[in-house]
Design goal:
- With 266 residues, this protein is mostly helical.
- It has one domain.
- 72% of the residues lie in helices and 3% in strands.
- The chain contains 8 helices and 2 strands; from the N terminus they run αββααααααα.
- It has a two-stranded antiparallel sheet.
- α3 packs across α4 and α4 runs antiparallel to α7.
- The chain starts with a helix and ends with a helix.
């Protein structure tokens, strides 16, 4: 009976909305996305203000640590040319991490009844889809620059011409897998909280959230890392030239995607 009650009382995909130029805008998702962007910019400008060649401040240490981690990952995958993609890797990781962790802030006026005022924007499919499309379009632009017109279309026939349709389907599915890997894990976290607040006695709910919320932070960090890792690997494959290296990179990307799927399923 409690399960049936939860099914009736938990509503999925409901957001406060406004109409603008014929478009329906989820105001809570837009608000939390703008808040995440503001936090990201604040951290960036704060670091710029505090940067020094002497003893680094804590914010400078944080940025340098993040930069070097992404730089090492990019160089291990692409060599020295991978350095030019470090900024997008850092940006993608930190912005998605902030978006994921915003959901940690308790902002529901009536837990179990009303939704979060500031939900994790990555728990809504629109932001992960926008991030995935941004990355994939950028990847294809870089691929076109690196390979030229003929090389760009010729690489779809690697390693055999007969596999061209499969390679094209693989490219089409990349933004889909990027989107739903991130969205699915963050959405399930929010759904778990909703189920707990609906089925558990009111005096037990705070303890359930105390146990679940830190685990949700871990999931958010893992998903931000996976998204950044796949972004770097997609750029690696898109800018490779030699056929043997291209096939090696293809297997590397495939293995990374499989590991990402394994992490996401657990």
């Amino acid at each position: 009976m409690k399960t049936l009650y939860a099914a009736k009382t938990i509503h999925v995909g409901l957001h406060p909305t406004v109409k603008l130029l014929g478009l329906t805008i989820d105001t809570d998702i837009v608000t939390s996305t703008l808040l995440a962007a503001a936090i990201f910019l604040f951290l960036g400008f704060w670091m710029r203000k505090k940067v020094t060649s002497g003893v680094p401040s804590k914010i400078q240490i944080f940025w340098e640590f993040l930069y070097h981690q992404v730089k090492d990952l990019a160089e291990s995958a692409m060599g020295p040319k991978g350095r030019r993609f470090v900024p997008i890797g850092v940006t993608v990781f930190l912005f998605i991490l902030i978006c994921n962790w915003i959901g940690f802030i308790p902002s529901a006026m009536h837990p179990g009844v009303s939704g979060e005022i500031i939900p994790a924007p990555t728990g809504d499919v629109n932001l992960p889809l926008a991030m995935a499309l941004l990355v994939i379009v950028w990847v294809h632009i870089e691929s076109f620059r690196a390979r030229g017109f003929r090389g760009y279309f010729r690489h779809y026939k690697q390693p055999y011409t007969a596999l061209a349709p499969i390679n094209i389907i693989e490219e089409i599915t990349k933004p889909v897998t990027l989107t739903f890997r991130l969205f699915g894990n963050l959405f399930s976290g929010g759904l778990m909280i909703a189920v707990m607040t609906t089925l558990l006695p009111i005096y037990v709910v705070p303890f359930g959230e105390i146990i679940w919320k830190p685990f949700e932070l871990f999931i958010g960090a893992i998903q931000a890392y996976i998204f950044m890792l796949l972004t770097i690997l997609y750029f690696t494959f898109a800018t490779s030239h030699e056929e043997d290296h291209e096939e090696e990179v293809r297997h590397t990307v495939h293995d990374a995607e499989q590991r990402a799927l394994h992490e996401a399923s657990h």
